[in-house]
Write a structure and sequence with these properties.
Elements lengths: L7 E3 L2 E4 L10 H6 L11 H9 L4 H41 L2 H5 L3 H5 L7 H29 L17 H13 L3 H10 L15 H23 L7 H20 L31 H19 L19 E3 L4 E2 L1 H25 L7 H26 L9 H4 L4 H8 L6
Antiparallel strand pairs: 1-2, 3-4
Helix pairs in contact: 3-6, 3-7, 3-8, 6-8, 7-9, 9-10, 10-11, 13-15
Length: 424
């Protein structure tokens, strides 16, 4: 009521003037031109508060869902409440004025039921609705800003092992919380322009338009976080960047992708939680843009990540038979120069494998399906070639004393070691 600017006119007149905004001389101007009042209700203190103190994504999501729920209630209850209150007020006036005054003034009965302006009830309902719309717009903006401005550094925001970031799970929860309030969101966009949708009224976007904006904002934030991994010290910094994007985009596909996607409608990351039992908890994005955009980032990140394992193939090319000279053919004992060639091949592979394995085994993939799939993709990069190389040249004696040292990683052992990858 305060924000709507209701004012008592005078002690001798119980009617109220129509609600006006403090910065407007005529509320009808704001009604006729909604775009001129899109920032209505935000004073200097509000603007400073929004820019300097954005809530967490989780808190902003709960606030947005709560305001939209209130707006839904106001939208449904307001007209009925206004009619009931107006009817009661009109009836009371008629009974009060219909006595002696009616005898002296034949027109008094008619004038008692005629209002020169909105009644207190209707003005109050309008004020409540306008306040709810303003609060809804501000809550939606806060939610979008919270996702956009989620900190890029810190263990709570950018995990050191490149697992799924908290902003991803919080943003998924946010989309599910607000998704049922389609009509309430339309009530906001019908009257107010929003940063992601400058149109108003029927031309404004729907809830799916807002969900798309939140998704793209989240993806942008995740890419910024991923870029910061590459600035960290250590050999795994760039690899973490790619794995981080893989973890988070796969999570989004699992949680929000349509049920005919690879997830088949199952959430493999966490069991049922009573806190997740709410309208919209099973919300899915079925539009093609979602799969296209998220898959594009996932596939590009996976391709770059697998490139780290390609280095192992440098030493697994077959050696020309002309380069293998034997000093004892029956014993398959190579001469000194040919022996050095195979020693170098096995030695460099062992060194590269140990280094790559040590770096990447510290990374984490929580989702078991993604872990299995990624392990198979990594092994497919080099293991078939290594298996062929090992079988071909491990039968040849290229070192008299240290043959076993060069052959310390049989393919079976390598595959066994790989099974522990990404489970830190």
């Amino acid at each position: 009521v305060k924000d709507a600017g209701l004012r008592q006119s005078s002690s001798n007149n119980t009617s109220l003037q129509p609600p006006t905004h403090p910065n407007s001389n005529n509320h009808h101007n704001n009604k006729d031109n909604p775009s001129s009042s899109q920032n209505q209700g935000f004073n200097d203190a509000d603007s400073a508060s929004m820019s300097s103190s954005i809530p967490s994504v989780r808190l902003a999501a709960s606030a947005a869902a709560a305001v939209l729920r209130i707006l839904d209630g106001v939208r449904m209850l307001g007209p009925s409440l206004s009619r009931l209150c107006d009817l009661s007020s009109s009836s009371d006036k008629h009974r009060h004025l219909g006595g002696a005054d009616a005898n002296n003034n034949p027109n008094s009965g008619a004038s008692s039921t005629t209002n020169n302006g909105p009644t207190l009830a209707s003005s109050l309902c309008i004020a409540i609705h306008r306040t709810a719309v303003k609060s809804g717009a501000r809550a939606l903006e806060n939610l979008a800003l919270a996702i956009k401005q989620d900190p890029l550094d810190g263990e709570n925001f950018r995990p050191g092992d490149a697992r799924v970031a908290a902003v991803s799970s919080d943003a998924v929860r946010a989309m599910r919380l607000v998704s049922p309030f389609i009509n309430a969101y339309k009530s906001v966009t019908k009257r107010r322009a929003l940063p992601w949708d400058p149109k108003i009224g029927e031309a404004a976007g729907d809830m799916e338009f807002f969900i798309r904006y939140l998704t793209m904002t989240l993806l942008s934030n995740l890419q910024s976080k991923a870029a910061n991994y590459s600035r960290d010290p250590g050999l795994s910094s760039q690899a973490k960047s790619y794995l981080f994007l893989m973890n988070n985009t796969f999570y989004l596909l699992e949680q929000l992708g349509p049920e005919n996607n690879s997830n088949h409608g199952h959430n493999s990351l966490k069991p049922f939680n009573a806190e997740d039992d709410f309208d919209g908890a099973d919300y899915k994005i079925v539009e093609p843009w979602f799969i296209d955009q998220v898959h594009k980032i996932f596939d590009a990140s996976k391709k770059k990540y697998l490139g780290y394992w390609e280095v192992l193939n440098r030493h697994l090319g077959l050696v020309s038979k002309n380069d293998l000279q034997y000093q004892n053919v029956e014993q398959k004992l190579l001469n000194l120069e040919s022996g050095r060639l195979l020693k170098a091949r096995f030695s460099k592979f062992n060194e590269q494998f140990e280094e790559t394995y040590a770096v990447h085994r510290e990374l984490t993939v929580i989702d078991p399906k993604l872990r299995v799939r990624l392990l198979e993709d990594v092994k497919a990069v080099y293991l078939p070639k290594y298996r062929q190389f090992y079988q071909e040249y491990s039968q040849i004696k290229f070192s008299k004393k240290n043959q076993n040292d060069y052959l310390k990683y049989p393919p079976e052992r390598v595959e066994g070691m790989m099974a522990d990858m990404f489970s830190n």
